[in-house]
Amino acid sequence: MLKGLDNQLERKEDGGLYLAGWIWVPVYGNLRTLIMNEAHARRYSIYPGADKMYYDLRGLYWWTGTKKDTALYVSKCLTCSKVKAEHQKPSGLLQQPEIPEWKWENITMDFINKLPRTRSGHDSIWVIVDRLTKSVYFFTIREDYKTEKLARLYINEIIARHGVPVS
């Protein structure tokens, strides 16, 4: 038995060893593989993925490395790899976004939150970037600013200077 588990394992009437209600599966021949075979190809949940199979197994069985063993087992399953390959888009080049034709025609924006509060009460930064030139505006704001206040700031600072972007 495993050191440290001796006093935690409980032998039940059926002769099995249990750890906190789970059947403890020792390293004994290919017993763990047989259990995984049954869990993976049973009639009502044919070929579940690694996560689903692990959650199904952990409801009944336990052994050191159950999750790792389950993931390895599923990764080696030929049927799973064939099915997965058919249902997923083929890997390839990432979809490149179109290059804008004019500066400030296409922008991106993001918020950086949970910063230390400044003396003026600002605790966030609003970042607006032109995708063509990579020009950036940084606005210090408070996290609790309402949408109307952000819209006013956007109109006064971005639209007033560069016009309305396409996206």
Tags for this model:
3-stranded antiparallel sheet, 7 strands, Endonuclease III, domain 1, transferase, nucleic acid binding, single chain, 167 residues, elongated, alpha+beta, Nucleotidyltransferase, domain 5, 2 domains, Integrase_H2C2, 4-stranded mixed sheet
Sequence-ordered SSE layout with sheet pairings:
Layout: E1 10-11, E2 17-19, E3 22-24, H1 31-40, H2 50-58, E4 61-62, H3 66-75, H4 78-87, E5 107-112, E6 124-130, E7 136-141, H5 147-162
Parallel strand pairs: 3-4
Antiparallel strand pairs: 1-2, 2-3, 5-6, 6-7
Helix pairs in contact: 2-3
What's the gist of this structure?
This is Putative reverse transcriptase domain-containing protein. This protein has 167 residues and is an alpha+beta fold. 33% of the residues lie in helices and 17% in strands.
Strand content: 15-25%
Number of domains: 2
Q: Any idea of the CATH class of the largest domain?
A: Mainly Alpha
N to C succession of SSEs: EEEHHEHHEEEH
| Biggest sheet: strand arrangement | 1-2-3-4
Mean pLDDT: 82
Uncertain ranges: none
Distance between the termini: 63 Å
Helix content: 25-40%
Spatial shape? elongated
Q: Please identify the structural class as seen in this structure.
A: alpha+beta
Count of separate DSSP helical elements: 5
Radius of gyration: 28 Å
Record field, number of beta strands: 7
How does CATH name the architecture of the largest domain?
Orthogonal Bundle
